Amino acid sequence: MNPASEPAQLKDIVAHAKEYGFVFQSSEIYDxxxxxxxxxxxxxxxxxxxxxxxxxxxxxxxxxxVGIDAAIFMDPRxxxxxxxIAGFNDPLIDNLDSKKRYRxxxxxxxxxxxxxxxxxxxxxxxxxxxxxxxxxxxDLAGVRQLILDEKILCPVSKTxxxxxxxxxxxxxxxxxxxxxxxxxxxxxxxxxxxxxxxNFLNVQKSARMKVPFGIAQIGKAFRNEIVARQFIFRMREFxxxxxxxxxxxxxxxxxxxxxxxxxxxxxxxLGLPAAKLRFHDHDKLAHYAKAAVxxxxxxxxxxxxxxxxxxxxxxxxxxxxNLSRKKQQYFDADIDPATGxxxxxxxxxxxxxxxxxxxxxxxxxxxxFTEETITEGEGETLQTKxxxxxxxxxxxxxxxxxxxxxxxxxxxxxxxxxxxxALKFDFRLVLEERDAIGKxxxxxxxxxxxxxxxxxxxxxxxxxxxxRHRDSREQTRMPISELRAYxxxxxxxxxxxxxx
Length: 500
Hints:
Number of domains: 3
Number of strands: 23
CATH architecture of the largest domain: 2-Layer Sandwich
CATH topology of the largest domain: BirA Bifunctional Protein, domain 2
Largest sheet: 7 strands, mixed
CATH superfamily of the largest domain: Bira Bifunctional Protein, Domain 2
Low-confidence stretches: 1-5
Structural class: alpha+beta
Number of helices: 17
């Protein structure tokens, strides 16, 4: 995305993410690699916290969900069976004046969003539905005509001089063998789900799982996105958190509704406001899909997909069964009340939940980025200023507490170090001595640290410290002996899990 065209708030968040060690442009010293990003010291902690929270919510809170970590490289026939080699394409269109390339569906989605923002949601919905119809029919000429009818212009050249729409495969490929030049190419996986499907029976048998059960995975995926934009929202290398839930045929509708509700609760439990979340049912369904819905979050650039819930039927396992010639069936010994006999062998149906770790990270950052007007001082020294801080849930904050000696003398640094050493086994902490205490507070506010612990002269007398709270800026005096329990309660995942 052209930085000049980014919404003001997103530009502020991008700048903040770089300055305070959350996200950097990949290979920036070489002018950067487009649509690829690195997570800095604070970013990797926040992202790991999000991933760990998702993982434990899936595998720890649900007795019938287990995890795997499948390889990125897979037998190329995997992608033949899944349909990616033949049909994993984006509809692309070029502007002849600017020489810029765009995804045709994104141009139309943005036009639909314009109608919605202008108070005409019906027109936006109609446009989205027509686009879905044309793409489902693979009517690329119709898609181009729809762009022309809507008078959509290139953001750079401001003209509507468009080429024909054509399909472009999104998979990265590489040589599969260092010695055999005729070996078929292998692909960087475009999704993590197939690693779960090909391991269905391995997991079911080794973990002694009984349908219904799920397999969860967190891992990297790669897509050769032509239109990579909106910071880390759409990247060429990204991370997915997926769970495939295997169910008895005929029960998929019930489980789809169950997981749809559960996944929305998860995002709300993370602190994302209900008003900024919405369900968006797919207008264009894959030929094998029974139902599909996105959980969208209102980013600074509008409502966009953060997670998908899909009822996939038995398509994936059946495709792998047919191509591999290995049965992907489960024997269900439970009694079917309709027949009085065991359900027997069948290929399970699948309900999928798939959330982008990077998109969840961005939503969390957008929601946490806070600017408020505060007053400081009294009387003639009273002043008003803008305070910027990250209002992160304490459980997700990169640093849980910062420990400050008030001054660098009189035994205060040594006492601060003693407290740090006592708590570092339980929490990620920082110990800072430089600059005035107000500047140190500000630095921690900017990375979302929920607590600052100040060691002062009184600490040396009675073993108490001042705990300053990020959101309210209030200060509490408490014994050093109570810090572990106090911080531990505030930053525990349990407080989020209890809402699920």
